[in-house]
Amino acid sequence: MSKIALVDDDRNILTSVAITLEAEGFEVETYSDGQAALEAFNKALPDMAVLDIKMPRMDGMDLLQRLRQKTTMPVIFLTSKDDEIDEVLGLRMGADDYVKKPFSQRLLVARIRALLRRQEAQAGDIVAETDDTKVMERGHLRMDPLRHSVTWKGQDVTLTVTEFLLLQALAQRPGFVKSRDQLMDVAYDDQVYVDDRTIDSHIKRLRKKLRNADQDFSAIETLYGIGYRYNEE
User: Fold this and answer.
1) Most buried of 115, 121, 142, 222 (most Cβ within 10 A)?
2) What is d(CA 83, CA 96) in angstroms, rounded to the nearest whole number?
């Protein structure tokens, strides 16, 4: 049973998310601020932490920075819809993913399970090599699924789990079109409903991050009304 730590100053979120995760078979610990969580983590680390960014005493950013000094356990940030700068900074500091408030609890569960699966694969001594686990190189792109690392022209690109899965699905078969429905199946649990705009938003952020590494990046093509295609450069 995986132990999940929830850290948020909103009691309603702590209570409702804890009930959902416990029903999914997780052991859950809750904390209302970063300082209380850090004191508990110094005694025993959970398997994963879900952190709000804005909290009293110690915010999520400070807590993440201290955690990364001693552990690589997965961390998901809970962010408000206007916290794009905080999201980028958090990912650079070592967060693994983020979920925007207000959020679907089923979506959060799906993100937690995806990160735990990745953690288990990384911890295993032997991992079967499949298309989903082996290092993939497509022109200037290099992806290492087990290390969750991406480089473009040798420059590191920090992606969330969702962005990584979408890019991997597109790049595995250059020139072939992936519909939005196919990309939803790749990135989300089959019980989680998302609409087309969610996929479009992820692709937009994915392109933006790759263009930060190379302003001429154009490998992801939009086919309006159809989907997306990766063109190897």
Assistant:
1) 115
2) 16
Place of tokens 């490998």: 219
Q: Looking at this protein, which amino acid is placed at residue 216?
A: D
Angle at 219 between CA 182 and CA 163, to 5 degrees: 50
Alpha carbon separation from 27 to 7, 73, 74, 100, 205 (Å, rounded): 14, 16, 15, 23, 33
For 68-105, letters b (16+ CB in 10 Å) and e give: eeeeebbbbbbbeeebeebbbebbebebbbbbbeeeeb
What's the whole-model pTM score?
0.64
CA nearest neighbour of 129 among 118, 145, 148, 117: 145
Tokens, residue 177: 């079109």
CA atoms within 13 A on the CB side of 37: 31
pLDDT for 107-131, tens place per residue? 888 889 878 877 776 565 444 556 5
